[in-house]
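Support reply, case 0932

Customer input (verbatim):
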Amino acid sequence: MTCGQPDHQALEAELLRRTETIARLTRERDALRDPVAEAVGLQVALAEYQRRTVMVQSALTRIDQSLALLGAGLAILGSAATALLAGLWTADPGALRIGSAALAAGGWALVSVILARDLRCRLAQTEAEQVQSRLRNLFVSRAPHLERYLSDSIHDDWPTPYAASQHSGGYMVWILLVTVGGCLLGAATGLAVLATGSVPWWVALLVGVAAGSANAAVTRSVLRRALRRRARSSVPLFPNDGPVG
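Our regenerated output:
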């Protein structure tokens, strides 16, 4: 394969996987035509829907907790930085720089942990909501008159953080955290270099900017790679322009 040409083997494998998935879903749908099997299947589907509802609620709770932890952690670090500045501003500039660098590094570590936690929770939430959309599609296929009473979609191709990141609020939150983390790491690096006392301030500034920019670029690249991998493994089963059931 040359540069710019599609990987035909990968495309064929993806097409085969989608065809097998559709065939399996068709067999499962046909099996539900038996009244007893259909009743049992719907009970199982309803139980799964309720379980996914609990998973969504749990993910949302963890997301709220992550934001609260981030706010509290940054507030504590800010208070510590203020106290450090007041105590060492004139007494010991070198210790002030080292202490400030340590606090900035702590802030970067906190933001990195929150980013990983929020990413995991939001992807779990999205997966659970997609399963709920598919189950609603199943319910409507059995009772079409219910569709007008549903407040959520019966299709699973709505914009997700990995399929349509430009329309995702969660993705914007991640990019903000990546930017904040890069700024904190850059500040920590620049202050640590400045604390050595062997370089001028502008060199420390350049080193800090370079370190922060590199960290943000690498983190964003890892994030996008993870989302692309998730997008390849997430295939809409009931797109908006497809049939119900």
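We compared this against your earlier run and they match. Two observations from our side: DSSP finds five helices and no strands in the chain. Residues 8-233 form one domain. Please reopen the case if you see a mismatch on your end.
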